[in-house]
Amino acid sequence: MIIDPAAVEAVMKTSSTVAPIPTVSLPPEVYVSTEEAGDVGNRTLWVVTVIMALSSLAFYGMAFRVPTSKRLFHILTAFITTFAFLSYFAMATGDGISSKLVAYSKTTDSVGYPVVSKTFREVYWARYVDWSVTTPLLLLDLALLAGLSGANILVLIVSDVIMILTGLFAAFGNDDGQKWGWYAFACIAFLNIFYQLGFNGRTAAAGKDDKTKAFIAAISGFTLLLWTVYPIIWGIADGGRIVGVDAEIVAYAVLDVLAKPVFGFWLLFTHDSMSSTTPSLGGFWTDGFGSEGSIRVGDADEGA
Q: In what order do the strands lie in the sheet with 29-35?
């Protein structure tokens, strides 16, 4: 049998064709993990909340035992633990906390399916709100105790606010460059705080009696030493994620208790027993604008 090639070609042209099989894109398998506080961290927050509340009540009670003109340190110190109490109560009840994406990776498994891994970590931003209010008050305690000038006090307080805000920005940094850049700015601001309090504060206190100078040096050194530990904790917690959230909470809790209630009791008990550390404020502080209309710092019987 003879097959006509033209007929074969015609049949092939009229044969049905099969469309190509479409490519199917499988959705990636997503794994999400969260670095968050456990029982230890949550209990620690509640313990510190109670400590701050009791300390605040004690400081307000101590304030009522002295005349209004001599309550400056008492009021400042009580405000410190009051704001700390509010912050810790917020964190203990689940407020003032955000989850930040700290790690992201996209790979494929052994058979080629896409796999995405995300890690979130809790950021306690209420802590930074606390610090932005309490640390300036604490520095004001020390600055007034040492007798720093108004210009130095202003520089001291502004440096402190810069340190806290840049620390907050670092905690929410989107990448390592941004995060550690903000951290570096915070450390520079802290160095200025160290200089203002350590050098200028010592110079300002040079004219006081030996007992007062020793107390100012001791409580200022205690504060600066504690504050030096804070950036170290940040670097191994929020920064490097070397320790978990529970360890971070416990470390900050210990520092906060030492830097606020312990500092406060030390300051006020010594303040009440040493007349040389007790400023007396008259004028507006005690009598309002109806009297002299000004703030007077000095002895109670001194003129404005």
A: 29-35, 114-123, 98-108
